[in-house]
């Protein structure tokens, strides 16, 4: 079992963020010792990494809460949870496509600057 301090050192997530995640119901299994201090096990760490990944990819807290609620309901919600993940995956893939599209525009502009600089310097472009 790990303390909140050990988890912050291990994950880089701040203690206030961990407390917030727990308060919002995003970490369904955090235990406490006899004095009320949080104790985290491997399952909690897996949830922390999962929630962090969902947040980093833009999933709103309310959606994660819904997912955790469904998870707690048990195996009868597997299909719905899978659909949630598939939908989120499609959103991420769409964002990635948009990022690559915009990266291509930036790369084009950088190539144009290389050409313009070479014309100004009257040197050849090195590839």
From TrEMBL:
The keyword Transmembrane helix does not apply. Pfam families: MerR_1. The keyword DNA-binding applies. It comes from the Bacteria. One of its GO terms (molecular function) is DNA-binding transcription factor activity. InterPro entries: DNA-bd_dom_put_sf, MerR-type_HTH_dom, MerR_fam. Keywords: DNA-binding. SUPFAM superfamilies: Putative DNA-binding domain. Residues 1-70 form the HTH merR-type domain. Gene3D superfamilies: 1.10.1660.10. This is Transcriptional regulator. It comes from Paenibacillus albilobatus.
């Amino acid at each position: 079992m790990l303390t909140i301090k050990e988890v912050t050192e291990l994950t880089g997530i701040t203690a206030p963020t961990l407390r917030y995640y727990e308060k919002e119901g995003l970490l369904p299994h955090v235990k406490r010792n006899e004095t009320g201090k949080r104790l985290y096990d491997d399952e909690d760490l897996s949830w922390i990494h999962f929630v962090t990944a969902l947040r980093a990819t833009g999933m709103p807290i309310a959606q994660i809460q819904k997912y955790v609620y469904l998870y707690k309901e048990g195996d009868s919600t597997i299909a719905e949870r899978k659909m949630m993940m598939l939908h989120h995956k499609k959103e991420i893939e769409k964002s990635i496509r948009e990022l690559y599209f915009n990266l291509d525009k930036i790369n084009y502009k950088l190539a144009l600057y290389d050409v313009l600089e070479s014309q100004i310097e009257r040197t050849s472009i090195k590839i």
